[in-house]
Design brief:
Oligo-1,6-glucosidase, domain 2; binds 1-O-alpha-D-glucopyranosyl-D-fructose; 5-stranded antiparallel sheet; about 550 residues; TIM Barrel; Immunoglobulin-like; 8-stranded parallel β-barrel; alpha/beta; 3 domains; single chain
């Protein structure tokens, strides 16, 4: 099937986690003016769109994913004037801005919840999900994604409210048409301001199984809520309503963060007819792969193997072909650093493996997302005690598994944090080798990664062989060659345990990609075959090549 051309299929997105990007006023917290001042850097990289993690008013229990006012800017980040200026300056540089939309839940400090908890007959009561106790306890055994029960008893009325995340993030009741009206009005308000799209936080979780059954117990303590809150009975209906009432009236990029999504579900969310969203983020190759040495829940000290990752990504490429559009990502603010997790962050391999991973992802079919610092090959950090942690997910998990239930040894838990904790992605952006990596003149809210003296933007910009310039080239290639955007994906060399290879084909044009995921040379004849038939190299992370093999972490792309 001929793919319909759309700007958001041709775009490369850059995610900014504002808290950790650039601090303009020395309070140790990144802000909007900091982002505006760095726009020339992003323009140089060549990205088309910025996705901003939440910048709305928030008590910051979960760094802005707990919103207390959807139409106000978080004080730490600046003012609405700062926002308007950032938007205007981004647009002047041809960069669009996509907002994070967090509407599965609000903050417990949002005016709706402040009202809702007051009494059983408050007009806002049904904005949230309230249940009577079961045998004097929680209504069911669900575990919150941030440990502990997903239910919180509220003294005022003796009832429990549902919070799939922290207890300061009560879930909205999407079955209530008034909630949908409020959300759609608010979205419309931002669209009229001129923003260019939404990344929708856990949008797959807005419709719950009305039976609220107990979930399967996996860690011996609580039950899994996933099967009863992900892809629920009305989720597609609600998104179609959102599409009719808001999205279809503007020219937007929409991407749903879809925990628990399968390829079948994605074909509905991101259907080619455009009745719901443009694309979704799936979790199979990130949270879904605990890899070897799994400890508990999402916590692991192991690495996922390439064939496992390849099976997942190739299956997504094939299943969505012609039916729905893919998103492509290694990193975001909830994931460890890609080069540490999938590549090799040892000094001798860091740059090569970061470029290899970038090639492997950016030549696939779908819209690629780059997370701040990924273009520098930023790495995971190291946790020496719970004091180093800022993320509520880490702190609660440590308290539950190490302190309270004594199921995991504290040192092992810290090793898990080194491997997969979200704070790995949240250490400040490394701008230069000056104190605090040039992120702030004050004390950063989370310590900088000590390797900033070597790994930073200033050094990368001065080095023509840097990871930065490699990303710049990958982005430029996507803009230049339609086969990279629209070509049909076909897996190659599936018998290799070490080489991830594939082709893309469009109107008789063939693109061949081969990536060595190991630190050893690996046999590969695919590239030589293409070269012998007149193919030419578009990009590679090595200058000199060898016949019949790929060198350690070598990536080659032939057109
Ligand atoms: O994340 C939702 C989610 O299910 C996971 O990414 C989760 O945060 C984590 O990886 C579990 O191990 C979204 C946001 O991206 C995240 O930052 C928020 O904390 C969360 O929703 C709640 O809003």
């Amino acid at each position: 099937m001929k793919e319909k051309k759309m700007w958001w299929k041709e775009a490369v997105i850059y995610q900014i986690y504002p808290r950790s990007f650039s601090d303009s006023d020395g309070d140790g917290i990144g802000d909007l003016n900091g982002i505006t001042s760095r726009l020339p850097y992003l323009e140089k990289l060549g990205v088309d769109v910025i996705w901003l993690s939440p910048v709305y008013q928030s008590p910051n229990d979960d760094n802005g994913y707990d919103i207390s006012d959807y139409r106000a800017i978080m004080k730490d980040f600046g003012t609405m004037e700062d926002f308007d200026r950032m938007l205007a300056e981004a647009h002047a540089r041809g960069i669009r801005i996509v907002m994070d939309l967090v509407v599965n839940h609000t903050s417990d400090e949002h005016a709706w919840f402040v009202e809702s908890r007051k009494s059983k007959d408050n007009p806002f009561r049904d904005y949230y999900i309230w249940k009577e106790p079961r045998d004097g306890k929680e209504p069911n055994n669900w575990q919150s994604c941030f440990s502990g029960s997903a239910w919180q008893l509220d003294e005022a009325t003796g009832m429990y409210y549902l919070h799939c995340f922290s207890k300061k993030q009560p879930d909205l009741n999407w079955e209530n048409p008034k909630v949908r009206d409020e959300v759609f009005d608010m979205m419309d308000w931002w669209c009229r301001k001129g923003i260019d799209g939404f990344r929708m936080d856990v949008i797959s979780m807005i419709s719950k199984d009305p039976a609220y059954p107990d979930g399967p117990v996996t860690d011996g303590i609580y039950g899994d809520l996933g099967p009863y809150v992900c892809n629920g009975p009305h989720v597609h209906e609600y998104l179609q309503e959102m599409n009719r009432r808001v999205l279809s009236r503007y020219d937007l990029l929409t991407v749903g963060e879809a925990a628990g999504v399968t390829t079948d579900e994605a074909r509905k969310y991101a259907n080619a007819e455009g009745t719901e969203l443009n694309m979704v983020f799936q979790f199979e190759h990130t949270d879904g792969v605990a890899g070897e040495d799994h400890v508990i829940g999402k916590w692991t000290v192991g690495k996922p193997s390439m064939p496992v990752i390849r099976e997942i990504l190739n299956r997504w490429e094939d299943a969505l072909e012609g039916k729905a559009w893919n998103s492509l990502y290694w990193d975001n603010h909830d994931q460890p650093r890609a080069v540490s997790r999938y590549g090799n962050d040892a000094p001798e391999w860091r740059v090569l493996s970061a470029k290899m991973l970038a090639t492997c992802l950016h030549m696939m079919k779908g819209t690629p997302y780059i997370y701040q610092g990924e273009e520098l090959g930023m790495t995971n950090t190291h946790f020496t005690s719970l004091e180093d942690c800022r993320d509520i997910e880490e702190i609660n998990a440590y308290n539950q598994y190490v302190v309270e239930h004594k199921m995991v040894d504290g040192a092992l838990m810290l090793k898990c944090f080194d491997t997969v904790a979200r704070d790995n992605a949240r250490t400040p952006m490394q701008w230069d080798a000056s104190p605090n990596a040039g992120f702030t003149t004050g004390t950063p809210w989370i310590p900088v990664n000590p390797n900033y003296t070597q790994i930073n933007a200033e050094a990368a910009l001065a080095d023509p062989d840097s990871v930065f310039y490699y990303y710049q080239k990958l982005i430029a290639l996507r803009h230049e060659y339609p086969v990279i955007v629209y070509g049909v994906f076909k897996a190659r060399m599936m018998d290799s345990e070490a080489v991830y290879a594939y082709e893309r084909e469009l109107d008789g044009q063939l693109l061949t990609v081969a990536c060595n995921w190991t630190d050893q040379p690996q046999p590969c004849t695919l590239i030589d075959e293409r070269l012998s038939k007149g193919g030419r190299e578009l990009i590679s992370n090595y200058k000199e090549h060898e016949t019949g093999i790929l060198q350690p972490y070598e990536a080659r792309v032939i057109l």
